[in-house]
Amino acid sequence: MDTGTHFAMGIGLFGLAHLDPSVTSHPVTAQAVLLGTVLGSQAPDFDGLFRFKGGAAYIRQHRGLSHSFPMIFVWASLITFILFLTHERASLLSLWMWTLLAVAVHVLIDCFNSYGTQALRPLSRRWIAWDVLNIIDPFILTVHLAGFLLWWLTPIHPGALFAAIYSLIILYTAWRWRIHRSLVRKVAMQAEQAKRISVIPTIRPSLWKLVVEEDGRVRFGEIHRRKIRWTDEIPDTDREHPAALASLKDPDIASFLYFSDYGHVQVQPFGDGYKVRWADVRYYHKKRFPFVAVAYLDHNLDVIRSYIGWSSEQRLEKKINSCTIETP
């Protein structure tokens, strides 16, 4: 989920922590748990520091090891240790337990959107992305804000309040999961030649994006109130092109395909060589691919330059126009 949602959940989990007598009866423990749940709710995303090593390193590492099951315990223990240095009178068990819950909730909730995590590492590097919640979910944010307002304005016990809120979020997520499953089955009945069907949430609860991969083409559509509308399609015929196969050796392309197995490749002549663009079909919007990896190859199929990242079409074109290929 987005940083704001994780932050809201960190505060909400502190409200839930008021069910713990060690928190409500001991101000130092309460202060430490507040810091623990807020930091724990953000900790897995500290892998954002890989941005300083370049786009390929960031995309390969983000939501990878930092979001894995063993790291839940590492993050919780590390944060607890640091906070205990300045809150020696706090309940160590309560601090560790609530920090652990905050980290675990972060990793779990990230599995429900289309980006996913590698939560099963080191057992598996498979990306877990259940396509149930949008990265910014208005319902989850709204109920948290409502909870904060009630916490501030009323005498309702925050532990009971946020227990009710998180029960509601669990029911909401289960409801979204059921809708998603039913929509996938509905699409499968209409797209009998599909190799893969992706029904992807949007910020509008009643609207879902649709991607259907078939032999030789990819079709796009949307589902609004369970009604399917096909909007576009693109050919998928360049996968075996020699330039496409040669581009797989490039670190940027390899990082892109490590993160996403939804890659669509397009090969175009460029100077005396080729431009190979890999794009994630899940994010196709208004005939544009915002998440791409591009490699420029010479006539010998050697990569001259490459780029990976999230970019508007305008920014991508600037990068393309600034790129020149010199042939020997």
Structure, explained:
The protein is of the alpha+beta class. It has three domains: 3-176, no CATH class; 191-235; 242-321, no CATH class. It is 46% helix and 19% strand. The protein has eleven helices and eight strands. It has a four-stranded antiparallel sheet, with helices on one face. Strands 5-6-7-8 form a four-stranded antiparallel sheet. Helix 1 (3-16) packs across helix 8 and helix 7 (138-153) runs antiparallel to helix 8. It starts with a helix and ends in a 7-residue tail after the last helix. Residues 324-328 have low confidence and may be disordered. Keywords: Membrane, Transmembrane, Transmembrane helix. The chain crosses the membrane at residues 69-87, 93-115, 127-153, 159-177. Pfam families: YdjM. InterPro entries: Transcription_regulator, YdjM-like.
* Alpha-carbon Rg, integer: 23 Å
User: Would you identify the regions where 5 or more consecutive residues have pLDDT less than 50?
Assistant: 324-328
Mean pLDDT: 90
Question: What spatial form do the alpha-carbon principal axes imply?
Answer: globular
Strand order of the largest sheet: 1-2-3-4
Strand content: 15-25%
User: With helices defined by DSSP (H or I, 4 residues minimum), what is the helix count?
Assistant: 11
**What is the string of SSEs from the N terminus onward?**
HHHHHHHHEEEEHHEEEEH
How widely separated are the two ends? 47 Å
- Helix/sheet category: alpha+beta
Q: How helix-rich are the residues, as a percent range?
A: 40-55%
How many structural domains does the protein architecture include?
A: 3
| Biggest beta-sheet profile | 4 strands, antiparallel
Keywords: Membrane, Transmembrane, Transmembrane helix
Pfam families: YdjM (PF04307)
Protein name: Inner membrane protein
InterPro entries: Transcription_regulator, YdjM-like
